[in-house]
Amino acid sequence: MKLNLKNKLLIGAVCALFTFVSPVASLEWGGILKNDTQGLLPAFKNFSLSQSDSLFMWLSAPLGESGLYFSGEGMYKFTFTTADNNFSQLADVDLLKISGDYQTAKGIFSIAAGRYMMSDSTAVIFAQNFDGVSVKYAGNRFAVSGFGGYTGLLNSLNVTMINKDGIAFGPESKIYSLSNGFVPAGVSFELPSLFTNQSLSIQTLAFIDIGEEKYNRFYGTLLLSGPITNSFLYNFATSFGTNDFSSLMNYSALNFYLYPNDFLSISFGAEYASGKNGPFSPFLGVTSRSIVNSLTAPQTTGAIVPNVVCSCVFDKMYFGITGKFLMAVPEDKVETKGVEADFSFIYAVFTDLQIGFDLTSYFDISKNNEDNLTATLRAAISF
Questions:
Q1: Among 33, 65, 87, 321, which lies 20 to 30 A Cα-Cα from 313?
Q2: pLDDT of residue 367
Q3: SS (H, E, C) 164-222
Q4: Is the pTM of this model over 0.70?
Q5: What is the largest CA-CA distance in the chain?
């Protein structure tokens, strides 16, 4: 693989940071080996297999007496699929961050810089790694935060963003392909105890597209959450976005969370992503997100999706069941599309060994041949 200037600069920065922290006596490191064997049955026919194995390595260390900490994670993954006899590889640096928290007279000031995970208030518009800086001040009565960065050095094989037509930007190589260049920036203001332990936050976001499309995106989000009773909570989020300030799109979600005992949790609610509905234009985020796991895995746009999730933890075992009902609203007419049912199981055999099983199914009731079924066996060992 021929490295361009951006890749060389990225690798150089990684090596420099690893050299800086390597002499630190309190350096901690570890790794995880993962094996995933997946059976795929698209449209309930043409069965195929996908086999992938991954290695994750991580390390962390304090940087002297500065109060700052360095953390890093790298990964390598190879996958073979029988459907097309294709062998693919992926190498990435998932985490490369310096961060610190500082106590002040009336709150805590936090700062982070490097490559790390960033999510907006809805976790739908932008939820992925980025290269940048974030700061936050959290006091007793309010919190304010901001971030800014760049996405053009990310590996598009590992982080997928979508263009103005809602289609994922395609990678250009098989191991490390530079992603589309956005400059994301955001500011948030939160009142953690507005009244009776209810939390209110407001967030503004801007994504400047410096790639070929020059399709900028701007959002404003309102989030309200809190307890209804000691074991019953809610979360409501609504976000309005625009590209040219002449049209408006909307994403809204309302979810309830019930915790009847120590081992059982139940959540239910619904999400709405606008299509061409009345005053709204089709919703478009930045990070690729499939609203259901149908055959074509549509993006989060023009849809209403009620959902329910039930999860249980017994000793070393975890069980999870998810149900979704997809109703498409591309324009003003509501169209019933299909039902998704998912099951997941995880068992901690030992402290360092986990095995699991996932079953994802989508049943198309609109006769568009969108049926889909996948079953995955997982194993992971940490060291």
A1: 33
A2: 80
A3: CCCCECCCCCCCCCECCCEEEEEEEEEEEEEECCEEEEEEEEEEEECCCCCCCEEEEEE
A4: yes
A5: 64
